[in-house]
Design goal:
Number of strands: 0
Largest sheet: none
Helix content: over 70%
Oligomer: single chain
Distance between the termini: 15 Å
Number of helices: 5
Length: 195
């Protein structure tokens, strides 16, 4: 319920915010150097491919993490309720072993989730470098056709500085979109419990 009430809303807001940032950067670069729109087609295709692959994997990894985390929380709740009985029968070592097993299972799923995020970050960093390179090269290329216009030099600088910020925005857009879809698993779990 916490995921649905709190995280889902925050993730949606973060996703829309980062998406607006990425669109704004692309609009600025494209308005300064119109040739950038031709370079944008393969970049967006690569981006969509990476997002699709990551989202499918991340959703399933998040599901494994949620499934592995539930017994851990359940055991902790039961332990707090039955602490007197656990002490009376001296079952602390068995409880600690069971807790360690649940924690190991949950941490395996969490580690895979983190590894998938690192995999995505590397690919999106490369994509960001490609965008920066195209923005710089096209600004230099168009500078010649603008006849050394000082106004264009300032706009080209703006375009390049915006391109430098796109890497982090791209990474967060994919991550927030994937988090949004992965957090919908909580809705599925609530429906399966209620139904």
């Amino acid at each position: 319920m916490y995921t649905v009430d709190e995280q889902l809303v925050a993730t949606m807001m973060a996703y829309l915010s980062t998406m607006a940032t990425v669109v704004g950067v692309i609009v600025v670069i494209s308005s300064v150097t119109p040739l950038f729109t031709f370079c944008l087609i393969p970049v967006l295709a690569f981006y969509a491919l990476q997002q699709s692959f990551f989202t499918k994997s991340y959703r399933e990894l998040k599901r494994l993490d949620s499934v592995a985390r539930s017994p851990l929380y359940g055991l902790l709740g039961e332990t707090l309720d039955g602490i007197a009985t656990i002490r009376a029968f001296s079952t602390q070592p068995a409880l600690m072993k069971k807790l360690a097993d649940f924690l190991d299972r949950q941490q395996n799923a969490y580690f895979l989730t983190f590894a998938a995020q690192c995999w995505l970050a590397v690919r999106l960093e490369v994509l960001g470098i490609v965008i920066i390179a195209f923005a710089c090269l096209l600004a230099v290329y168009q500078h010649e056709s603008m006849g050394g216009d000082e106004g264009f030099a300032g706009l080209a600088g703006l375009s390049v500085s915006f391109a430098l910020s796109v890497t982090q925005a791209l990474n967060w857009t994919v991550r927030m979109g994937s988090d949004l879809e992965a957090n919908m698993i909580a809705v599925e779990r609530i429906e399966s419990i209620a139904g």
